[in-house]
Amino acid sequence: MSESIKHECGIAMIRLRKPLQYYIDKYGTPLYAVNKLYLLMEKQHNRGQDGVGVANIKINTPAGSRYISRYRSVSERPISDVFKKINKKYKKVRQAWGTERLLDADWLQENVAFTGEVWLGHLRYGTHGKNSIEYCHPMLRQNNWRSRNLVMAGNFNMTNVDELFDILVSLGQHPKEKADTITVMEKIGHFLDQENQDLFDQFKFTHTNQQITEIIEENLNLQRVLQRSCKDFDGGYTMAGITGSGSSFVARDPAGIRPAYYYADDEVVVVASEKPPIKTAFNVPYGEIKEIQPGSALIIDKAGNYEEKQFIDKLEKRSCSFERIYFSRASDPNIYSERKDLGKLLIPQILESIDYDLQNSVFSYIPNSAETAFLGMLEGLEDHLSNERIQAISERSKGGEVDEKYLNKLLSFRPRVEKLVVKDAKLRTFITGDDQRNDLVAHVYDTTYEVIRKGVDNIVVIDDSIVRGTTLEKSILRMLNRLNPKKIVIVSSAPQIRFPDCYGIDMSKMNEFVAFRAVLQLLKNSGLDNLIDKVYEMCVADGLKKGAPNFVKKLYEPFSYKQISNMIAEITRPDDLTCDYEVVYQTVENLHQACPDHRGDWYFTGDYPTLGGNLVVNKSFINFMEGKTVRAY
Predict the structure, then answer these.
(1) How far apart are the first and last CA of the chain?
(2) Which residues lie below 8 Å from residue 231, measured CB to CB, with a gap of 6+?
(3) Torsion angle, alpha carbons of 138, 140, 145, 147, to 10
């Protein structure tokens, strides 16, 4: 994606199902879980590079011993930073005590941190300027009873934080801040406390307090905790939690917006936000990696037994399609195939944009994430040419012998492919003046010169998506214009982004979307300015009420998809562009055809999977009209 957007945090959890000594004896190292977690997180570094955290729980430690360990980092390379600190503890053991202690599980767990059986890692993208270590997961809710401690990390955003905050206050709590991470953890923590208390009350007349402690730890019903705490949540989430006694869960929202996958055998239970990290770290067949179902939680008890249990009523599955278009790694075979299909399905629109002139067209892509869609686009072109050849030979053969020279020319033709766009290393814009900074930004991309026939060739370049359009205008188009083509066609493998996201992606302000700016311009050009004010009035009057529709969709209704794409081209066209220019967007219909199991498309269609989504988009439009630059959730 030429315009980076922050998004989709990542989680990684490992539960060792056997004693630590088992892994030391089998694999020759006490670092089995450490190394596996490191791989899981490195293979998900695409999901968060602003902050990282790792927490570890030791099960069945004696009183007086620390059993929760945690490191977090917001350094330049946070994954390496955290794991260097963890590994340093093991190095100190080797240096001070020798290999014998390093291979003694009982001694390690008694004397060294990060030697427990349950591991939770988190990768974070900081949004809206909040990127201090205090915002890094995992978060801790501490208590002197092991089973009341809660360690939590997640990939989520809630649309109704104010409502959840008020619920906490009504329960008698005094939250220290109004943030979805804290609010969610405190609400789950409240009902975890309640579950503990219910069990205590059940056995207080028949057992000693110490006995009850063991009973509670072995009988915690985390499904019930989630049922009671998550019923008011409105948002997209994958939430992972561990109690101080070692029970754990990974819960997924009822629409399946945020992703979660797991693998289990007799040694481990492992969870991650994507399949490829599990495949890489544990070398297991893809077919054995399962998806946690929407509205269900993978629950692991203190003894290591696991089960997937439903904790909330399911909604229609609306898994985030941007995961397939851009966010998740394309090493997943299904995602790889889907991205190729996204490129292939654009062929009819691309051919129309170049007037079917393949002889004088050069095809390229924005590196590096659009490469897979580009390969699909090339396959689509080959399929088109194959059909053209069959038809042409068939027509010629009807008239007798086919000319050999004609046949050779027909069969040897291939689409012209060049690497026209090259992304340089990050340019640091130390200059403070806007004009000078924009000049530097324009050189983030460079091009390959002297491969375009001036005034003759069309250039077709595919990108994953076009969000704001600023990189197009200030960098890519000006760079390609230096090649003096006849026409530039910019192709987006994603549809037009028209509406904000409120479930995990940092796309929350209406005026940042070039499609929204385009429709405002079309309304003005068409003399329909009054519709903007009417929609604002509807949003103010009814748009923030529970059950309200998405009023902002009305702004797009007067215009066709093509009209909006053409206006986007006008908006992003640099003043000094000397050639024809067109923008081609993927259609929503083709998106669903390519990604049939991930139909979350609210940023394209405005059809939000939860009621809170409509409130957010209406609020976002109110903020735009009132000149407020804050997010709407």
Answers:
(1) 25
(2) 312
(3) -30
- Running DSSP on this structure, what letter comes out for residue 293? P
Torsion of CA 399, 404, 405, 408, to 10 degrees: 110
Evaluate whether 312 touches 226 at the Cβ level (below 8 Å): yes
**Considering the entire predicted model, what is its pTM?**
0.92
From the list 198, 305, 297, 302, the residue with the least C-alpha distance to 250 is 297
Q: Are 451 and 484 in contact (CB under 8 A)?
A: no
What are 632's two structure tokens? 């709407």
At which residue do the structure tokens 């529709």 appear? 549
How many C-alpha atoms does 99 have within 13 Å on its Cβ side?
3
pLDDT tens digit sequence for 417-444: 999 988 765 554 444 444 544 555 556 6
pLDDT for 498 beyond 60: yes
CA distances in angstroms from 237 to 105, 158, 233, 308, 316, listed in the order given? 36, 8, 9, 16, 15
List, for residues 94-149, the tens digit of each pLDDT value: 999 999 999 999 999 999 999 999 999 999 876 554 667 888 999 999 999 999 99
Q: What φ, ψ does residue 494 adopt, rounded to 5°?
A: -105, 155
Which stretch of DSSP H or E encloses residue 33?
A: helix 32-42
Higher-pLDDT residue of 461 and 421 is 461
> Which pair of structure tokens corresponds to residue 206?
């028949």
- Cα separation, 422 vs 289, in Å, equals 36
Least confident of 230-239, 296-305, 380-389, 394-403: 394-403
Task: Tell me which residue of 149, 139, 142 sits closest to 179, measured CA to CA.
Answer: 139
- Rounded-to-integer distance, Cα 455 and Cα 442, Å: 23
Q: Note the pLDDT of residue 215.
A: 96
Q: Residue 91: in which H helix or E strand, if any?
A: helix 78-97
The amino acid occupying position 456 is: V
